[in-house]
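Sharing a chain and its predicted structure for anyone who wants a worked example. Both blocks are below, sequence first, tokens second.
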Amino acid sequence: MWPWYLILDLALWAITAVIIRWSWPRLDPVVRKCVFITVFVVMVLQVLNELLSLHVFKAWDFSEDYNRLLGINLWGAPIEEYLFWFAYAWMIPFLYSGLAGGKSKPQFIKETSLE
């Protein structure tokens, strides 16, 4: 049976893909690298947060007894938890960089001359 609850996550990934496609040509290569590093760090931190919240702090629990829509589990959490957070990990930095960055260099990069 198709897990219909994943449709929202797929829609979120479609929006994310549009944002990345829109912002990519507007970004300086240095900014692109910074955005990729940020996305990777956020994804790693989110997995750690998910695992710590579930297994160490017992902050929440996912149970088939209360919610039959839960489907595929990954390390004790439904896969849609990871899909949701990973989509936002990609969407937010690209959206911000695309809106704020434009084609100009970031302010922290200064032109140097050898004269």
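Comments welcome. The helical segments are 6-23, 29-56, 79-101.
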